[in-house]
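hi! just following up on the protien thing from before. the input was this:
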Amino acid sequence: MERRNAWLSYKEADENEMEKLNRAYREFLNKGKTERECVTEIVKQAEAAGYEALEAKISRGDKIQAGDKVYAVGMKKIVALFHVGTEELSKGMSILCAHIDSPRLDIKQNPLYEDTDLAYLDTHYYGGVKKYQWVTLPLAMHGVVVKKDGSVVDISIGEDEDDPVLYITDLLIHLAGKQLQKKAAEVIEGESLDILIGSRPLADLPDDKKKEAVKQNVLKILNEKYGIEEEDFLSAELEIVPAGKARECGLDRSMIAAYGQDDRVCAYTSLAAMLEMNETPKRTGCCLLVDKEEIGSVGATGMQSRFFENSVAELLDGMGCYSELAVRRALRNSSMLSSDVSAGYDPAYSEAFEKKNAAYLGRGIVLNKFTGARGKSGSNDANAEYVARVRKIFDDHDVAFQTAELGKVDFGGGGTIAYIAALYGMEVIDSGVAVLSMHSPWEVTSKADVYEAYKAYKAFLLEA
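and the predicted 3d structure came back as:
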């Protein structure tokens, strides 16, 4: 059952729409390199499309009714959008859910030190990374520093042309004989992913400060530009990500190369589909974009939190029909696409894939009936009836789609948020875009797959 390459079906109008969508997608990637930045941009686009904060409507005492567009934000890192339908909420929602966090390096709370006239920042990697991929790259710092008085300082260094970039060194090949004998997981150790941040000493320091003159110069720069002191690192969230904008990839410009496409490619296409729901739907549409998926969906902003459940409860209360049973029914009767990326087949590493059940770039959105590892450990495993419904929706709307597993059975595997949503009893299946070099600093997707994902999510919101 080999699926046809989606490019072969496009007419000029399709290609124009695809290119327009992908330009907007690249811009989204450039603006949202952290989960906080993503939420800021999502809220901006939602409000421009007529969405209003759920909290604001509730505080005014406005009754929520069919046609209303509202959103809820949790700790500036998780967001849910609802387009209220004419059908009562207890009959369920059509939900698109993706995550907006990506693998990266986080700055530790006590990070700044000097060693032999070089200043560094200590990091702790976040999510599953091949550590050796993060050295000798131009890097940027994004995040916030919150001072004791509660004021928030936004940080972005390394993205503008005139900005300096940050860097992690590696051992020169001439002296690397012993290093090259190590396993790939040990070539670069976690504690070696320190960010080179300065080498110029500050002059005219008192004797007790001269041994850290480079560090003192870095602190002086940070204080002059941002008004922060060394202790302010204690209450900071600073992320190290690859510097640079998303780029078209390939001589034919058919692909996108960028940081954070896992899973912002599904987050953006879900958002775009949601914001284009102009008519009041029969069934309430929802776009849920979550944090912490890369580390197990834990914490107050991960899918395992009560954020989504609480938001649905608030929505029902605003409609004047809240009850614990109504919340349970709304969640149980919902249908969800767990919109997460899949591993694209790479001929350079064909031994890791089973070709009949692999995802291929350019062949459309990928349905993963199950994920998990080896014996389907940690998998949701969607039921056949629901897979059939989703297939029909995609076929009825001319969506190019394919089915896949995440590599050969015994090679490893991975998970998504699908199993967490399934705990409510709702129908869930994983569906997303195939990615090459997943979890690397620069990942690759097909423009056609981005477009087909967007079409799939629109169709699902209309028909699910």
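Residues 12-31 form the longest helix (20 residues).
The mean pLDDT is 95.
cheers
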